[in-house]
Amino acid sequence: MTAITISDQEYRDFTRFLESQCGIVLGDSKQYLVRSRLSPLVTKFKLGSLSDLLKDVISGRNRELRLAAVDAMTTNETLWFRDNYPFTVLADKLLPEIAANKRPIKIWSAASSSGQEPYSMAMTVLETQARKPGMLSSVSITATDISASMLEQCRAGVYDNLALGRGLSPERKRTFFEDAGDGKMKIKDNVKRMVSFRPQNLMDNYTLLGKFDIIFCRNVLIYFSPEMKSKVLNQMANSLNPGGYLLLGASESLTGLTDRFEMVRCNPGIIYKLK
Known about the structure:
Layout: H1 8-22, H2 31-44, H3 50-59, H4 63-74, H5 85-99, E1 105-109, H6 116-131, E2 139-145, H7 148-156, E3 158-159, H8 161-164, H9 170-176, E4 177-181, E5 184-187, H10 189-192, E6 195-199, E7 212-217, H11 226-238, E8 240-248, E9 261-265, E10 270-274
Parallel strand pairs: 1-2, 1-7, 2-6, 7-8
Antiparallel strand pairs: 3-5, 4-5, 8-10, 9-10
């Protein structure tokens, strides 16, 4: 029987390690999260205890284990068309406005998790094209995540009934998915073709990703320290084309973090435009 308890010191050491690797700040009293996310790795890597695992992760002795631990701690469940309004704003305001420039539109989903956000964007684009033929010539979506396992899942585009039931309307399910067997459904190729998935740690440089017209960085900054939030937001400002837009999560704000954007009130919701 492996031990799954950890001491306060072990927890503090691991939280420092996690912040240094990917910017995530766990804060106090999240030992339960570390236990639940990392305990399966104790068995997988044939270790004696969770304490042994944490020592090996922090020391860097086992690169595969270190990557697996970061992967486990950064994996988050998400929804289709989360909060709805960002996708309404994308369809009704952002796509028509940027399409008026008569050039390809580039969008970045900055933490794609299991793929729901970028695929929701792609569905929104296809619906807009169907509603307003000829308005959108070329739209590409780049989706990034720090988690290798999540990116693999994204590229497969296969979802079970539990995932499909979270925010996806029956109509969209019929239009954009096909049967994959075993009670699962797969994103159709016309949706998949619009999205390319790439690994990206938001603490690192984004220059190689190129420039974007729209960035979705939603429900990511809540996990970062103020210093890290500021760094990420300023780098994202550098990654936007002139007049580009940034969309954050409903509970997130730029206040005190960067002065590179102006707030734009939509109905509903708030978005940010590069100054």
